[in-house]
C-alpha cells in the first residue's frame, strides 16, 4: 500500500503532510537523504546526450579533478526537498521508485546517450534529476509540463534546450550553437553565453540575459519582455509582439521589430534598424554608419556623444533639439521633414520617422553616457 493521497488536481501528497509539492524554481541543494536512485555510465568524452524528462532537471559538467578523462555520465534522481516539503524515510523513499522508470539507452557507434522517464499518469511527485556529463558534450534536453531546466558551464558544439511551462536557467555556456525554446516560461541567462544564440519565449515568457556574445544572436518573445545587459555580435535580431525591449551595451549590427513595444538601448556601437507599430524608442548611438528608426505611433529620443558627425533625416510633426545640439539644416520640400547634419556631413547618417509622435535629439558628454550618478558634496 502506497503512503500517498491525492488532491483534486492529482498532486501526490505524503499522508503525513498536507502541503502540495511545489515546482522547483531554482538550483537545488540535494543530499544523500533525498537520493532515490543513482547511475554512472561510461560515455564518450565528446558524445551527445538527449534528455526528455517530466521533472526538474539540472545538467552540469563533471569535475575535471575527479574525472580527468571526462568519460562518465552520472545521473542522480532525488526527492525534491525544497520549500519545506518533508523528506520521506528510507522505506517510503524506496516506494517512490515504483512511480518512475528511468530509461537509459546507448548508441556506441555515434556516441549518443538517450535518457527518458515514464511516470504513473495523473500522479505528480516532487523529483529533480541531477546530471554530470563530459564538459564538451552536445546536449539536447526537453522538460515537460511546468518543470524547470538548468544547464551550467558546458562547452559542447550544440546545445538545444526546451521547456513547456517551466523556466530555462542558463549559466556560463560556450558552444557553437545555443538554441533555447520555452513555450510559456522564461529564459534566464546568467554570466556569459558564447555561441550563435537563438532564444524564443512564447506566451508571456520573457528573456533576461547578462551577456550574449556570438556571430549571430536572436531573441524573440510574444508577450514577454526582453532584457539584455550587454551584447557583442556581428548581427542581432530582437523581436516581440507586445513586450518591451531593454538593452544595455550593444556592439554589432542589430534589427529590432516590435508590435506594441517600448525599446530602450543604453549604448549602440554599430548600426541599428528599428521598426515599431506602437511604442517609444530611446536610443543612444555611440558609434554608427547608417541607422534607421521607424515608428507608426510613438515618440523617438535620439542621443549622440559629443563630437558626433552625422547626417540626420527626421520625419515627424515636431522636432525637439537639445540646447547643446547644433544642427546645420538643409533645404527640403517634404512637409514635416527636417534634414541636416551635426559636425560634418557625409560620414554617417540616421533616418528617423514617426507618423504620430515627436523626435528629440540630444548630445551627451562621455561621463553622461556612462549613466553614473554623482552626489554633490554639501559640506
TrEMBL record:
Pfam families: DUF4097 (PF13349). It comes from the Eukaryota. Residues 195-361 form the DUF4097 domain. This is DUF4097 domain-containing protein. It comes from Elysia chlorotica.
Amino acid at each position: 500500500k502506497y503512503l500517498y493521497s491525492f488532491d483534486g488536481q492529482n498532486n501526490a501528497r505524503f499522508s503525513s503532510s498536507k502541503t502540495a509539492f511545489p515546482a522547483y524554481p531554482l538550483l537545488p541543494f540535494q543530499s544523500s537523504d533525498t537520493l532515490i536512485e543513482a547511475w554512472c555510465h561510461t560515455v564518450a568524452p565528446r558524445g551527445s546526450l538527449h534528455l526528455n524528462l517530466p521533472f526538474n532537471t539540472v545538467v552540469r559538467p563533471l569535475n575535471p579533478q575527479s574525472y580527468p578523462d571526462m568519460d562518465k555520465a552520472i545521473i542522480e534522481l532525488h526527492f525534491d526537498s525544497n520549500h519545506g516539503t518533508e523528506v520521506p524515510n528510507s522505506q517510503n523513499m524506496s516506494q517512490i521508485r515504483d512511480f518512475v522508470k528511468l530509461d537509459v539507452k546507448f548508441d556506441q557507434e555515434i556516441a549518443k546517450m538517450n535518457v527518458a522517464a515514464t511516470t504513473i499518469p495523473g500522479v505528480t511527485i516532487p523529483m529533480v534529476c541531477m546530471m554530470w556529463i563530459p564538459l564538451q558534450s552536445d546536449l539536447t534536453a526537453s522538460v515537460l509540463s511546468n518543470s524547470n531546466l538548468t544547464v551550467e558551464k558546458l562547452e559542447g558544439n550544440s546545445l538545444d534546450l526546451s521547456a513547456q511551462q517551466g523556466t530555462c536557467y542558463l549559466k556560463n555556456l560556450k558552444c557553437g550553437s545555443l538554441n533555447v525554446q520555452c513555450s510559456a516560461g522564461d529564459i534566464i541567462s546568467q554570466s556569459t553565453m558564447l555561441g550563435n544564440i537563438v532564444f524564443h519565449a512564447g506566451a508571456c515568457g520573457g528573456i533576461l540575459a547578462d551577456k550574449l556574445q556570438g556571430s549571430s544572436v536572436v531573441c524573440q518573445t510574444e508577450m514577454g519582455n526582453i532584457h539584455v545587459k550587454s551584447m557583442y555580435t556581428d548581427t542581432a535580431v530582437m523581436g516581440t509582439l507586445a513586450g518591451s525591449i531593454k538593452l544595455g551595451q550593444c556592439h554589432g549590427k542589430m534589427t529590432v521589430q516590435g508590435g506594441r513595444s517600448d525599446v530602450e538601448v543604453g549604448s549602440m556601437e554599430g548600426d541599428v534598424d528599428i521598426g515599431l507599430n506602437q511604442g517609444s524608442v530611446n536610443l543612444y548611438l555611440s558609434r554608427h554608419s547608417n541607422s534607421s528608426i521607424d515608428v507608426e505611433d510613438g515618440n523617438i529620443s535620439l542621443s549622440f556623444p559629443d563630437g558626433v558627425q552625422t547626417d540626420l533625416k527626421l520625419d515627424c510633426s515636431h522636432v525637439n533639439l537639445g540646447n547643446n545640439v547644433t544642427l546645420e539644416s538643409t533645404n527640403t520640400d517634404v512637409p514635416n521633414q527636417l534634414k541636416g547634419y551635426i559636425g560634418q556631413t557625409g560620414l554617417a547618417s540616421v533616418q528617423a520617422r514617426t507618423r504620430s509622435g515627436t523626435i528629440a535629439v540630444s548630445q551627451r558628454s562621455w561621463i553622461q553616457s556612462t549613466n553614473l550618478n554623482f552626489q554633490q558634496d554639501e559640506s
